[in-house]
């Protein structure tokens, strides 16, 4: 292909591709502004623009839950969310679940119970568990199963994860009762 036709093709692509838009939101307590293409996925903005690689890509089709984030306290698959939908939103990734510089009770319970193995599902599992415990502080096993149902794990057989969520729920509840 000649230089001229390559240049013409590049110009054509620029004409066809919509211009980038400014997008502002808060992620893990920090205000961020980025330039994004209108239909860019929130997952790509987090991972590639902001280097927040704690949101993982598994299926890319809304099936596995590994890309989960909390968007204004709602659990969403960031591979399915157009980034512009996050304008003005408050986003939490797994990095935002820590207790200051320490792991949270929930994160510690996953480690202690063997609920985190290869780690691919762990961000989604933890965010789904946080979403569940914020609404149902002492869930039954069935409620835990239901709360985590959108997340696939190939390693653990799920029982260690359910046990971790149950343990964290009991510890958080005990702390609430004692005011510790
Ligand atoms: Fe988003 Fe699997 S990568 S649900
Ligand atoms: Fe490996 Fe769940 S720990 S997929």
Descriptive tags:
alpha+beta; Ubiquitin-like (UB roll); DNA polymerase, domain 1; 2 domains; binds FE2/S2 (inorganic) cluster
What is the number of strand segments? Answer: 5
Mean pLDDT: 92
The CATH architecture of the largest domain:
Orthogonal Bundle
CATH topology (fold) name of the largest domain: DNA polymerase, domain 1
Question: Largest beta sheet, briefly?
Answer: 5 strands, mixed
Say which CATH homologous superfamily of the largest domain is assigned: [2Fe-2S]-binding domain
Q: What structural class should be given to the helix and strand makeup?
A: alpha+beta
Element-level helix/strand string: HEEHEEEHHHH
Strand order of the largest sheet: 2-1-5-3-4
**Measured on Cα atoms, how large is the radius of gyration?**
20 Å
Give the low-confidence spans. none
| Fraction of residues in H or I helices | 40-55%
**Beta-strand residue percentage:** 5-15%
Number of helices, counting only DSSP H or I runs of 4 residues or more = 6
Number of domains: 2
């Amino acid at each position: 292909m000649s230089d001229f036709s390559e240049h013409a093709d590049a110009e054509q692509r620029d004409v066809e591709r919509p211009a980038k838009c400014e997008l502002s939101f808060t992620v893990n307590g920090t205000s961020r502004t980025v330039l994004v293409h209108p239909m860019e996925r929130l997952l790509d903005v987090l991972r590639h623009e902001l280097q927040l690689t704690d949101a993982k890509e598994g299926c890319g089709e809304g099936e596995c839950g590994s890309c989960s984030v909390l968007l204004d306290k709602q659990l969403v698959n960031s591979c399915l969310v157009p980034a512009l939908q996050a304008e003005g939103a408050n986003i939490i990734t797994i990095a935002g679940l820590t207790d200051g510089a320490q792991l949270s009770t929930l994160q510690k319970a996953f480690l202690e119970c063997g609920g985190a193995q290869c780690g691919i599902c762990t961000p989604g599992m933890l965010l789904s568990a946080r979403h569940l415990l914020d609404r149902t502080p002492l869930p039954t096993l069935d409620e835990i199963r239901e709360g985590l149902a959108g997340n696939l794990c190939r390693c653990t057989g799920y029982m260690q994860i359910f046990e971790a969520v149950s343990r964290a729920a009991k510890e958080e509840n005990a702390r609430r009762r004692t005011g510790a």
